[in-house]
Amino acid sequence: MPTPAALIDWSQPWLKPFRILGQRLSAVDDWRLALNALAEERGIRNYQGLPVSFVAQAELPPATAYEAFVGSSGKVPTRDNLHDFLNALIWLSFPAIKARLNALQAAELAKAGTVSGSSKPRGAARDAATIFDENAALLLVPDSAAGQSLSAALRQHQWQQVFVDQGPMFGGAAEVWLFGHALLEKLVQPYKAITAHTLVLGVPESYFALTGEARRGWIDQRVAAELAQPDALIGRLTPLPVLGVPGWSSGQDQAFYADAAVFRPKRGK
Q: So where are the chain's domains?
């Protein structure tokens, strides 16, 4: 099939961190071969130090959990579809985070005494890792009073304060980076209600002096380090309607943010 990259509008603002790589992959005939060449070029390894490669789904042995197979072999089963292409794109872009998530998943499988991934309950840590892998966004805010205020408002679902009152922070002192490959897949055909599970990170002033590629590397190492603890994600993720990010959608007026079906008040309020 044609590369799934050709189905994506790489000009969308949320795809800026992936644009160069995505456009490069749009131009190839054999996209899995191109992915593997890039993985080798970038020296991407899993948490056991094995080279990561993207293989046909048929290479996944029967009754073996996907996460266990990736951990033991370095091979990532990749179907001929947009979802798995985007998963590979995230491996290329945030390899340390992906390796750490795979390590967490593999550890939870081992704890449950299964390699099939289905014989016992998943548990909170494994569920949180799966949600993060599929649907996460990262909100980077400065380690300052303004950054703490924005983070607190987001957790309280104070949408007008987040996107209107403090909206000028976005694109300058605050950044949203998308991580979840299912989230990216939904945004190929964007609609207003798409909501990410968001991890908020406070960043030092020096972060904002970095280039875009250096920022990506900094994020990769920082988040991977934070995920070293199995319960690192539990209770930390907060909703973010991604098309509410200033500049990510047209018509972002007062009525846009007043839509309570998307910008929902916090429960109990």
A: 8-130, 135-257
